[in-house]
Amino acid sequence: MATPTVTRPGATTVGPGPALGALGPRRRPRRGLGRPDRQLVAYWFLAPWLIGILGITLGPMLYSLYTAFTSYNLLTAPKWVGLENFRLLFQDPQFMQSVGVTVKFTVISVPLVLVCSLGLALLLNTGIRGLSIYRTLFYLPSLLGSSAAIAILWITVFSQPGLVSDVMSFFGVQTGSLIGNPGTALYTIVVLNVWAFGATMIIFLAALRNVPREYYESAAIDGAGRWQRFRRVTLPLITPALFFNLILGTVMASQTFTSAYIIGGATGGPAGSLLFYTVYIYEEGFANFKMGYASAMAWLMLLALGLFTVICFATARFWVHYGDER
Hints:
Layout: H1 35-67, E1 70-71, E2 79-80, H2 84-89, H3 93-124, H4 131-144, H5 148-158, H6 163-170, H7 185-195, H8 198-209, H9 213-221, H10 226-237, H11 239-254, H12 258-264, H13 277-287, H14 291-315
Antiparallel strand pairs: 1-2
Helix pairs in contact: 1-14, 3-7, 3-8, 3-11, 3-13, 4-8, 5-12, 8-11, 11-14, 13-14
């Protein structure tokens, strides 16, 4: 008589012989990190960024918002004065002058940067040889344009004697120091800002290369000329890039500091023609020790740029076109 085989529940038998489950105890699957452990590891990796955003960005911003309503000279404790700093701002002629200089610079330089960068991007998009080399060469000035070394170089180019004045005098034109002239000093900074248009050009070039070639072929079949293809096909399809460059360029132009401070000095150049808003903030905060006053100016700039951005986004639906729209 055969001896019955006893197996534990859940064991599997294959033909005669002992059950597979009876060969030994089943191994427990290895447990990985639990969900709380994974979250803890993620927070450890995010810790440097969190410390930076809280300690270097958000913390100082909130403290500057507090000091904007105080009288604070960096040496004694802040004293609450309410809206007094904001009231004094609009009675300060230098504040109004700095606003005018910054607005004038932004209104002139930003459109010039957009036009020059878009024109060069269109030229590079024609399929010329050595595109990567040209793209790199035109991008380099955007990395150097805001440096102190380029600002010092700009002084030697536009001062008297300088490169521009020497070249113009060779043709019999006496220009003098363009930086020392209140009527032309601001335009030297405009030229510097336009010279460093490489980043804007790269964004336009990427947008142009994403325009489907079929659209141009269809427009050409319909008899559209070069200008009509640009106006009816190219320009509408790159409006997202134009929108991005407009906002970013305006924000960056309004925050111009290094070149303006080195070229114009702390006093804002000849007759205050280079008294940019950021230069005046620095002068009031760290030279005159009016940190509360400077903080109020900084928050007014933040509100103005925020309002400009809101207006741009509110009006974008009328002129910015995206490819997935129906």
